[in-house]
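Dear Dr. H.,

I hope your travels went smoothly. While you were away I took the liberty of generating a structure for the chain from your last submission, since the lab meeting agenda had it listed for discussion. I wanted you to have the full record in hand beforehand rather than looking at slides cold. The sequence, exactly as received, is reproduced here:
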Amino acid sequence: MTHTARRIGRSLALVLPVVLVLSGTLAVTMVPWADNSSSRILTASAEDVSVPAKPRAPQDLLRDKLISELQQGEMPGDVLTHLQQEVDKRPSLAGHCAGIARALGRAAVEAYGPTKAQSFARPVCDTAYASGVASMG
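The corresponding predicted structure, in token form, is as follows:
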């Protein structure tokens, strides 16, 4: 009897994984999201519209706000002053000040050209703004 049980066990050991893989593959192809029609894809993407976006880091928000100010016509000198004021208010931003100032320098070159953008350089966050201008010029 142990010989028969052993043979059945070996047969199951060989057949069972194949059956599980095939049944899993068939199950995945049978779910609604496997439908390739564009209307199904659009419906699926439209369902999560109300999910809030991930919160962004304060330095990213500040950088985007200041670049937006620059793009809306605010003078780079004024934007650099706003950066310095924000860093003074929230010292935790000091470690990100140079990166933000470099981004402002690059944005100023796009808005004013390298020569005029360089004329706004000030010692905010050391020379990071000028470094951003130089990288674009």
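Two observations you may find useful: The CA atoms of residues 57 and 63 lie 10 Å apart. The first helix runs from residue 2 to 30.

With kind regards,
E. W.
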